Every structure is written in C-alpha cells, then in structure tokens.
Structure to design on (482 residues):
C-alpha cells in the first residue's frame, strides 16, 4: 500500500492554524495527511485581528459557527474603517464593507451617481450604501434575504488574537491535522527542495509538500520598502468604549497614523510610523494623544513589507506576505494564498506546472493587495513629514493606470487577480480626492427623470433598512442570551 501524500504546515498562531485547518478540511477527501508544526506564540494580550469580510466565508468552510466564534474570542463585528485627519484639514471618509446602490438601466450604479453629481446631486455615495449608512447611525447591517436583493452588505471582525488562535487550533485538529510543538526548527535541504524539518529532541518530520505560514522556513524576500514609509509599529490596549463602535478608525497625524479597533475586552490600538521622522518615545506620545486613551501593554516592532520572490519554490509554498499595517490585510493575504493553493494542489508528486501557475496567480494577487495599500499613501493629502515621504514612494504601473482610468471616466481597471471588491477601491480613491472627470457614455441612454426616481427609491429603502438594524450592544447581548 502506498503511503499518503503528506503536507507539513509550519508557523505560529492564527496564520498556522488557519492554514492547517483549511488544508486539512479541503484535502481530507483526497487522503492527504496534514501535520502542523507550531513554534512558540508571538502574541500578547494587546494583539487583535481586524479582518476583512472574506474571512467569514472561510470560517463557514471550516464549520466555525459565528456565534461560537464571537463567544469564544470575545470578538465583535466591524462594518469598515473610518479615515480621519487629526489636523482637520481634510474630510473623513469611510471605507465601508458593502456596495452602494443598485444597477440602473443594466449599468453599474456608481457611474450614474458620478453623472448626477456632476449635474448638481448633493447626496454622498455613502447614503446609497446599506453598510455605510448603518455605520454612520451606529448600527450594524446584518445581511438577509431582503437587503441582499439591494446590494452587498458585509462585515469583518475584531478578534482578540490569543483566543482566536486557540479556537483555530481546535478547528485544525478537529479536521484531522496532527499538531507538533517545537521551540525551534532546523530546515534540511537538498537544493531547492526541503527534505525534512528537525524539531529537536530526536524529532524529524518529512513530507511531500511544506507550507510556510509565517516566513519561518526561509526563502528569498521581495522587498516592498520603496512603496511604504512605515518601518515601526506600536501595539497597545486602552479601555473599551462604553458603546462599542461598529467600525475601526484610522487617525492621520504628522509623523504617522493611529488605528483604533474597538473590542469588548479592550480598545486595541496600533500606531504606525517611520523611524526617520520620530523616535520610539515620540511615537508613544503621538499614539496616546491620537487615541485619547491611556495605553497599556505597549509593544514596538520593526516591519519590513514584502512578499516571497517565488511563493512556491521547490516543494515549499510560502503563504501570504508581510503587509504594511494599514487596512489590516495580513489574514486576507494568507487566505488568498490558501485558496490558490487548494486550486493548484498537485495531482502527483511532479508539480512543476502547478507551481508555475501558483507563482503567477499568487504573486499577482499579493501585488494587487500591495497596490491598494500603496494607494493610501501615494494619494493621501495629509500634512507632515511622514506623509510627504509617503507621497514620494514608488507607485506601480498598474496602480498608476488604475488611478488614471478612475479619474478619467469613473471606471476601475480590470485585473484578473483581484481580491477586493470595486467598492473598496472607490472608497479609497474618492476619500483621497480622486474625482472622476466623466463617465461611460452608455449610461446616457437612461432618461434623467428615471435615474432620479431610482435614486429616491434607493434612499428610502436604505433609510428603512437601517432603522430596523440592531446596535452592536444589542446584537452581542442577544448572542450571550442565546
């Protein structure tokens, strides 16, 4: 009898266990054996994951019940991120996790809104979004059959990192993954291939495929430093808000930015800056002032953004990337790699074709997420030395093309490996002042009075839906009582 195809996943904390759970769940029907090698945790009580909506779909695949998730972690929901200028020179904008409007005349709503605004419409785009409108009113927007007909309304999570990693570990083992703990590991190689992992104390694990879920197995790193000014990140925790906001907030200051992720056990605070513009002590003072909260458990770490030069090298797949901290893309990047790996998983022990396709698709997808983050810095109008340096960063040709096309005619450039919805790009571009100068001529076939009537119906529907949604406190109380 031939032995089963074996995959070893190495890493720590949520990335390790999320990858092990997804691979064990997805590959079990094929008889693939998944083993997880866990290095010591790097987490502290001040760490939390602020996630994108796509994670909910992965949780569903892993059979992680949302009520159980929120109870076990002390987590809560988030409808997006609000970006503000501490100097007050530029208006705030909300990156909401939902769509705006419905099609008119078979064409995307956004183009009609751009045209209407050029002709005097004074209603902001957010008023046509179920998610954004609810967030502005301090309410959640929970998807159901009625509002799903109107448009997409998603949410992410704010999850304390330690209990979340613990829950994912249980899920991975529940789906059949075998867990190994190691204080350290040594990688045994033969050329590009990994032969085995030495865990010490006489433990040596061999496999057909190795998956690196945290950059612990080595490999060439493609730096993104030219795109990003941040090289230091401070994490801390402040007291929780009496009424938990339904979105995160990013506050731009002259030497960096401060993010507040409201949670039940605490308000999780992150401050990002460049060591060229502020010392650690200055950054700590800036973080406290921007957050307006007493900070505890402060930790400071260096960050070097980038991705694997070749995500699949030899028989080792490195998932995700080291992202800039803005937008919180770490778990999304890992998820993108997992989905692609499951799609390209080798049918035999000879996987050169699958490896080439994975490197093409995963590399392009990670670069696209990088461009989304890069746009935040390249387009930001905030004042201060940090932002001056940010605007001088490298802009990829794809991003430059995307900005130019959006400005010219309110359209988003089509990229094959796109993992963010159009509404995220629109919120980012509009929020940073990229104003479309025209619109696709095809929408001119819709009579103005018809468009106006549709606008009125949409605004009425959004108002009606928002009024029937719960607050965060009411929703979480319902979970506790259930």
């Amino acid at each position: 009898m031939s032995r089963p195809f074996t995959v070893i996943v190495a890493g720590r904390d949520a990335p390790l266990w999320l990858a092990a759970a997804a691979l064990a769940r997805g590959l079990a029907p094929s008889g693939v054996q998944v083993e997880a090698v866990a290095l010591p945790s790097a987490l502290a009580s001040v760490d939390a994951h602020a996630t994108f909506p796509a994670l909910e779909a992965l949780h569903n695949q892993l059979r992680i019940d949302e009520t159980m998730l929120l109870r076990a972690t002390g987590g809560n929901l988030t409808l997006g991120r609000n970006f503000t200028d501490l100097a007050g020179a530029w208006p705030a904008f909300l990156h909401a996790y939902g769509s705006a409007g419905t099609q008119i005349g078979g064409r995307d709503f956004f183009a009609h809104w751009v045209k209407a605004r050029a002709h005097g419409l004074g209603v902001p785009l957010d008023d046509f979004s179920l998610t954004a409108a609810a967030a502005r009113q301090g309410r959640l927007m929970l998807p159901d059959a009625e509002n799903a007909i109107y448009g997409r309304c998603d949410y992410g999570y704010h999850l304390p990192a330690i209990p979340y990693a613990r829950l994912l570990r249980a899920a991975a083992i529940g789906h059949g993954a075998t867990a190994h703990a190691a204080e350290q590991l040594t990688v045994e190689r033969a050329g590009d291939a990994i032969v085995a992992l030495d865990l010490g104390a006489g433990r040596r694990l061999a496999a057909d495929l190795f998956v690196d879920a945290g950059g612990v197995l080595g490999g060439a790193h493609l730096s993104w430093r030219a795109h990003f000014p941040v090289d230091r990140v401070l994490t801390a925790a402040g007291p929780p808000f009496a009424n938990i906001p339904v979105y995160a907030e990013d506050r731009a200051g002259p030497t960096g930015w401060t993010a507040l992720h409201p949670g039940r056990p605490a308000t999780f605070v992150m401050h990002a800056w460049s060591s060229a513009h502020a010392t650690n002590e200055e950054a700590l003072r800036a973080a406290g002032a921007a957050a307006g909260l007493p900070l505890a458990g402060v930790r400071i770490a260096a960050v070097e953004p980038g991705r694997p030069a070749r995500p699949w090298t030899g028989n080792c797949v490195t998932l995700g990337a080291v992202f800039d901290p803005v937008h919180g893309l770490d778990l999304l990047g890992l998820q993108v790699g997992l989905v692609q790996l499951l799609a390209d998983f080798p049918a035999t022990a000879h996987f050169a074709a699958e490896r080439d396709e994975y490197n093409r698709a995963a590399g392009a997808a990670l670069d696209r997420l990088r461009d989304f983050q890069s746009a935040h810095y390249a387009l930001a109008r905030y004042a201060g030395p940090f932002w001056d340096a940010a605007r001088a960063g490298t802009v990829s040709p794809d991003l430059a093309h995307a900005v130019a096309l959006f400005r010219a005619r309110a359209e988003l450039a089509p990229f094959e490996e796109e993992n963010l919805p159009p509404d995220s790009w629109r919120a980012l571009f509009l929020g940073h002042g990229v104003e479309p100068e025209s619109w696709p001529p095809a929408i001119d076939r819709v009579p103005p009075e018809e468009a106006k009537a549709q606008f009125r119906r949409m605004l009425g529907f959004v108002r009606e839906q928002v009024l029937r949604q719960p607050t965060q406190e009411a929703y979480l109380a319902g979970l506790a009582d259930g």
